[in-house]
Amino acid sequence: MVCVLLEHYFDGYKRKLYTHVDLDKLYSLFKKHVKPIEKIKIDVRKSIGYIIAEDVYAKYDRPLKNISHVDGFAVRSDDVFNASQFSTIKLKIVKNIDPRKADTYILGRGETVFVETGYPIPVNADAVIPVENVEVKDEYIIVDKPVYRYYQVFLKATDFKQGELVIPKGTRITPLHVKILMDLGYSEVFVYRKPRISILNIGSEL
């Protein structure tokens, strides 16, 4: 009789301890007793692993202007449209142009300007011929094949357009996101403070 009573007691005790809790009820308990996660502003360079707490939009177009993908000669593609091995075309090299500030120059017909990788190309230029693909002779380059419009050119705003949503709220920040944020001029960003979690173990299983 005693054994039956003890067994009945322990069965009831186990049911009391390990009662199933519905997920919705569990979420409501968390919402009721857990404080909202605090938003903090931190240095972008130290933000890897945090969850971003605001939508991030592009402050400006990136790239800001059409830029060269290679070291080469910026040209007007229609100047060399008919170039071939049998009918080469000469373009005059414009001297004394800073290859990193070539966008200050307006490229005329029959002209070319040397530009560097990642820097803006001249006004009116719409293609860049890599240095290894042309012959330089005196003050001219010799072009023996046509190039299409925007050849070796990154167009303005092809990465991001001003006002475009770049990183949505709730995204976990990775090294790539850090690079994007810095490229867009963000030095600080709002993130959620990392929660403190405690684990309490019971029983001998652990």
- Shape verdict: rod-shaped
User: In percent, how helical is the residue content?
Assistant: 10-25%
Averaged pLDDT: 86
Let me know the largest β-sheet. 6 strands, mixed
- Number of distinct helices: 3
- Rg calc: 32 Å
The total strand number stands at 12
Distance between the termini: 35 Å
> Helix/strand-derived class?
alpha+beta
Extract low-pLDDT stretches.
1-6
Give the strand content.
Answer: 15-25%
Order of helices and strands: HHEEEEEEEEEEEHE
> Strand order of the main beta sheet, please?
7-4-6-5-9-8
Write up what this structure looks like.
The radius of gyration is 32 Å and the shape is rod-shaped. By secondary structure, it is an alpha+beta fold. The protein has helices at 2-17, 23-33, 175-183, and strands at residues 39-43, 56-57, 67-68, 72-75, 89-93, 111-115, 127-130, 135-137, 140-143, 153-154, 165-167, 188-192. A six-stranded mixed beta sheet has the order 7-4-6-5-9-8, with no helix packed on it. It has a two-stranded antiparallel ribbon with strand order 1-12. Strands 2-11 form a two-stranded antiparallel ribbon. It starts with a helix and ends in a 14-residue tail after the last strand. It is built from three helices and twelve strands. Helices cover 17% and strands 21% of the residues.
